[in-house]
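Weekly puzzle thread! Below is a chain. First person to post its structure in token form gets bragging rights.
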Amino acid sequence: MQFFDTHAHIGLIYDDPIEQLRVVQEAKQAQVTRIVSICNSLHDFSTVYDTLKGVSGIYHAVGVAPSEVSAPGKDWVQTIENSLKLPNVIALGETGLDYYRKFGDKRSQIELFITQLELAEKMNVPVIVHNRDAGKDVFDILSERCPSAGAVLHCYSEDAAYAKKILDAGLNVYFSFAGNLTYRNARNLHETVLNIPLDRIMIESESPFMVPAEFRGKRNMPSYVPSTALFLADMLDMEPEVLAEQLWKTSCSFFRLAE
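Winning reply:
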């Protein structure tokens, strides 16, 4: 089996480049052979990209998260556009809305989100969407501006009804689940995975956050992704090898990579 971690904040696990490389090596030993390195800020992107740009199986997304709405950086739109032309930069993100921590104001967050969706459309790349306590606005905005290359709701946190609404609207949107899927009380997530098409599901570590139940108390790592996959296989009553192959195909297809 091989696994694809579609969302890992490698720069937040460790600052040290040697430790970042060790994280990648440990992931590969755990059969996590592809990882999308996610940035919250453009500074985060540039430092991690420089460390990992030559490492096989590592891909990158570039964008400005809602947490950075007050200071996205000088010439940030042009910086993202230029970065999307670099080797192995395959998506824009993460971007989106976060009303839980109230970064800036809602209008500023929405403007930041929309600008990046428009840039994703211009550059013909998929977008990685953060949604926390902002489901209605995320849905409304994606209904009008979902990029042609698609979007993924990473670390999915809504319920099955919300996912059905997305699918019924015909949006080119995927659903990615992190280690919190394995929590006993995550009934909204359990119901969701049982009621959406298998070919719309991806998994991620969301490391260093959302550690699977098996590793509670530890800092999350990309190498823990198989734990989430095995839990999902059990939920769906599928052979782990069959599920792993489907997750791999879906992830490669979404990010437009050869299998």
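Puzzle host: Confirmed. Bonus trivia for everyone else. Residues 126 and 150 are 5 Å apart (CA to CA).
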